Amino acid sequence: EKGDFEHFMLKEIFEQPKTIEDTFRGRINPEHTEIVLGGLLDVLPKILKARRIIIIGCGTSWHAALVGEYLIEEYARIPVEVEYASEFRYRNPILNSEDVVIAISQSGETADTLAALRMAKERGATILGVCNVVGSSIARETDGGVYTHAGVEIGVASTKAFTAQVTIMTLFALKLAKENGRISSGLYLDLIKELSEIPEKVKSILVKHPHIKEVAAKYKDAINALYLGRGALFPVALEGALKLKEISYIHAEGYAAGEMKHGPIALVDDNLPVIVVAAKDHYYEKIVSNIQEVKARKGNIIAVVTEGDTGLTSMVNDLFEIPKSHPAVSPLLAIIPLQLFSYYIAVMRGCDVDQPRNLAKSVTVE
Ligand code: F6R
């Protein structure tokens, strides 16, 4: 039931402090010193020896996979590739028993993802699943996996399932890093702590929804929007753009900010909202230059920034602040204002937020 919320999507956005916590609780010991992923116990030695990890998915789940790629390579130093399941299944990939293929799927029933997994299994790879629906086809057919504990997601546009998937990717990356000795125990403990603080930080973003709604009102009549990010915040830009297009029908594109001058900068004029995910991390200086480039062409900039970062105030039109956090966990915070921004714009445009046109919650045909 929707309770006090006007739509399931809004309710699910507001559930995220709990669903993120439900997803890591039981996977982190009470002392916050160890990550336990029971569903991977049998296959862990295989993953640690993997030649590479390939993560597959569609849509939002593919975006969570991209965050996983950044985290696993950064902390565990195991090569990772991310592919659209729909491409992977048809392109005759080179696979053998030294490969681990992980499917991310909220429903666990996506036709392309399931078919890609079956193909990978036939070719000898170890196959794993990160699913939300317990007992779903992908969950049943895999050699191991981890459930996201997001609860039932009714809104067609995925919100709480995404942050649960990213939470699992974070736990998984840290677990592998610890097991293969690539992370110092100090950093490992710090990052477990950072993750455990995310639910409170998400709450502090959600309470600012009136501000996000005001900003949304300014941009509700946009025809196009450009989302930019770098590093693990690049997939957040992609996910922000997907949310906007699927529920408000505004054409939106997500881009790696460094790619801007290779094409999309031609779109920038005084009509174009450019949403820049600019939280403080080691890409920050680079993203500030991208903001300057957009400003010089009179684009309207909405920046997601770290609280207290006043340096950008004069450069941008609007700011969404997120609490300070380690860059490893900031995707979980940066996506929250973008979900709300899309939601409010879609509502103001009179769109059917929970059931956008032409979309289905579970894509069981290709
Ligand atoms: C976006 C969305 C879709 C799904 C995609 C994969 O909001 O909901 O892009 O993410 O269809 O679905 P699952 O995760 O069920 O495999």
From TrEMBL:
Domain SIS: 43-182, 215-356
GO CC, one annotated term: cytosol
Listed EC numbers: 2.6.1.16
Residue ranges of coiled coil: none
Catalytic residue list: 361 (for fru-6p isomerization activity)
Reactions the enzyme catalyzes: D-fructose 6-phosphate + L-glutamine = D-glucosamine 6-phosphate + L-glutamate
Alphabetized GO MF terms: carbohydrate derivative binding; glutamine-fructose-6-phosphate transaminase (isomerizing) activity
Subcellular location: Cytoplasm
Gene Ontology annotations of biological process type: amino sugar biosynthetic process; carbohydrate metabolic process; fructose 6-phosphate metabolic process; protein N-linked glycosylation; UDP-N-acetylglucosamine metabolic process
Keyword set, alphabetical order: Aminotransferase, Cytoplasm, Glutamine amidotransferase, Repeat, Transferase
Main localization, broad class: cytoplasm
The protein's assembly and partners: Homodimer.
Function: Catalyzes the first step in hexosamine metabolism, converting fructose-6P into glucosamine-6P using glutamine as a nitrogen source.
Protein's recorded name: Glutamine--fructose-6-phosphate aminotransferase [isomerizing]
Source organism of this protein record: Aquipluma nitroreducens
Primary gene name: glmS
